[in-house]
Each structure stands twice: as C-alpha cells, then as structure tokens.
Amino acid sequence: MTLHYLLFQLVDQDIVNVKPFSRLVPRLISAILIVLLPSPALAQTSPSINFITHSLHPFSYKKDEQLIGFSVELVKDMAKLHGLSTNIELLPFNRAFQQLKTQPNTALFVIAKRPERENGMKWVGPIITSGVYFYQKRHSGLTLKNLTDLKRVAKIGVVQGNADHTYLEANAFSNLSTDKSQIQSLKMLNHGRVDVAPMSELVMPFLAKAANIDVNSIEKTSIKLYDSTLYIAFSNDINDETVAQWQHAFDELKASGHYQTLFQRYFATEAQ
C-alpha cells in the first residue's frame, strides 16, 4: 500500500471533516503529494488543458448542478497528483469530439479508442473495457440474430458522431437515428421511437436508472457490436512528455488502489 493511497483514503473516509483537522488536512495532503511527485515538470511546463466530457452515466453527469462521475473524479485526482487544477466542460458528444479535433490543448473523456481514431489524437488509459450489444424493447416481437437482421429494422438509435454511429455508417447502415446522448437513445427505445440501440452492457443499467426506465423492460440481444475500450484523448498538439505525465498519473492511481476505490463507489453501488 503506497502513501498516495493512504492519503486518498483520508479523503474517502471523511477524516478531513473532523475538527480541528478539517482545515489543516487538505493542505497537508496537497503539500505531501506534490513533494512525492516523481517529476514536477508537468505542473511547471505543461500548457493549460481544456478538459471536456459528455453525459454518460456513471462516468460523467450532472447531479444538483454539479458535474460528477467516475471519470470526472478520476481526472481530477490525476491532476491533483501534479498540483494542477482542472476545469471540465460538459458538452454533447459530437460537439465535444469536434472540439477535440479542431482546438489546441484539448482533452476529451471518456472516448472509445477505435482504429479510425487512433492516429488523430493521443491516448491515456485504458480507463475501462466493456462489450457493446444491441438492446431492444422487451416483447417487441423482433427476431434478431446478426448484424444483417439489423439492416431490416426501421430505426437504430445511435449517438451522433460516436464510435457506434461511425462504425455502423461505415458498414452501410442507412437506418440510423441520431441523438445527442445515450440516455436519449435509451428513452427513444423505451418509447418505441427506435427499434434497437447499441449500448455498453456495463453502462446500460445506469442509463436506465437515470432515465427512470425499468431496466427489465429493455433486453439485451445476442448481437455484439464490439468490445469498447475507453480512454482520455488529448489533441495532437499536446507534447508527448505531457501526455506521458498524465499516463503516469493514471498508472499511479491504479497501482495505489485509488482507481479501484472509485470503481467500487460508482459501479458497485450507484445502480442499486
């Protein structure tokens, strides 16, 4: 168990809220973390990076006007390891993706690393991997066994510009209905506006809960689109040394056990 992990545990267990330590401990933790850095170069030389994300429960979403989620906390904790502050903006996925490709000093999370994207940006992770399956309304009467069957349904709900949309479009699917977020696609499926929608099997129960949809009213088909591995993507203008420092911060959080603590907090309890 590393000292980084012990320090994060102090925060996780709310020791900082006990008087008279409530004011002293956060400053002490920050000071110790900065001293422990293997290299302070990132805090001194890296450009200000504009972090953007998109709504995807439980990775990043708003609750009581606060931006929270597994990946939001993860990125903030990575920044803390280097004494940096982070300003994170929530945008629809397609707008966020276009911003990543056109604006300097930009980072987007979480985003699937796909072959067509691999050389267009720089990657930190992997954050998580999950199978993407097609879902349909239970008792819909549809008999679906493969991707060819899906070309015959009236509408497939996808998020504008995301990996599922790009993949299906490249494979000559002309029956795609686009939405701004996966939660909107799930709502469209629930209301019968689309016939099927591809979603991560890990994420789908959280989306249903957020949309107030009975998870048992939606069923997973046997049709798997692919395995999706999610990362933080940095714009290509950001130098390799800076990206390597962010990768090191991510690796440190995994090695310390803090990543696992965050994962359990969001994925083991959030959907209950």
Descriptive key words:
alpha/beta; six-stranded mixed sheet; two-stranded antiparallel ribbon; 10 strands; globular
| CA-CA gap between termini | 29 Å
Radius of gyration: 20 Å
Which sequence of SSEs, written as H and E, runs from N to C? HHHEEEHEHEEHEHEHEHEHH
Helix segment tally: 11
Q: Give the fraction of residues assigned to helices.
A: 25-40%
Beta-strand residue percentage? 25-35%
> How many distinct beta strands?
10
State the strand order across the main sheet: 4-1-5-10-6-9
For the biggest sheet, the summary is: 6 strands, mixed
Secondary-structure content class: alpha/beta
Query: Which stretches of 5+ consecutive residues score pLDDT under 50?
Result: 10-41
Basic shape: globular
Mean pLDDT: 87
Sequence-ordered SSE layout with sheet pairings:
Layout (H helix, E strand, L loop, with lengths): L2 H10 L11 H13 L4 H5 L4 E4 L7 E3 L2 E3 L1 H11 L7 E3 L2 H10 L3 E7 L8 E17 L9 H4 L5 E4 L3 H8 L5 E4 L2 H9 L5 E5 L3 H7 L7 E18 L4 H17 L1 H11 L4
Parallel strand pairs: 1-4, 1-5, 7-8
Antiparallel strand pairs: 2-3, 5-10, 6-9, 6-10
Helix pairs in contact: 1-2, 4-10
